[in-house]
Every structure is written in C-alpha cells, then in structure tokens.
Design a protein that fits this description.
- The chain is of the alpha+beta class.
- It has one domain (5-58).
- The protein has 1 helix and 4 strands; from the N terminus they run ββββα.
- The chain has a two-stranded antiparallel sheet. It has a two-stranded antiparallel sheet with strand order 3-4.
- The longest helix has 17 residues, at 42-58.
Length: 73
C-alpha cells in the first residue's frame, strides 16, 4: 500500500502564502488485492500525522496555524 504527503497552497492567501499539508489516504479503509480484504489505514494515517507534526514543530521557520479533522480539498 502506498501513500504520501500532499501539500496545497491555500488559494486565498498571499505574502506569506499559507500551505495545507495532508496525508494521501482517502478514507479509513483501503482494499488490498494481495490480502483480499480491507486494510484499516487509520493507524498509518495517525502515525504519519504525528511524524509530520513533530518535524514541523522542530523547524523554527514553520508556524503551525492549526490541525483540521476534515480537509476542504
């Protein structure tokens, strides 16, 4: 199973441009053909979110404005 980090520039912002960072998961479950069953992806998405937050919190040039449960994109 593959996923990744998606980074969107928020259209209504400029100087500085705000960015929205999301994981690439489309829901809490994904069909696995190799296992012939659905896989619960929520634990993977939660781990990715926690890792991204830790990376951004360590970077003094990044300001975290908030964490959303639902992404508008």
């Amino acid at each position: 199973m593959r996923s990744g980090v998606l980074i969107h520039a928020v259209p209504e912002t400029s100087d500085p441009i705000e960015y929205l960072c999301t994981d690439g998961f489309k829901g809490d479950r994904k069909w696995s053909w190799s296992k012939l069953r659905f896989i619960d992806t929520r634990p993977l998405a939660d781990t990715l979110l926690n890792d991204l937050l830790a990376i951004f919190e360590r970077d003094s040039e990044v300001e975290i404005l908030g964490v959303l449960d639902d992404v508008p994109y």
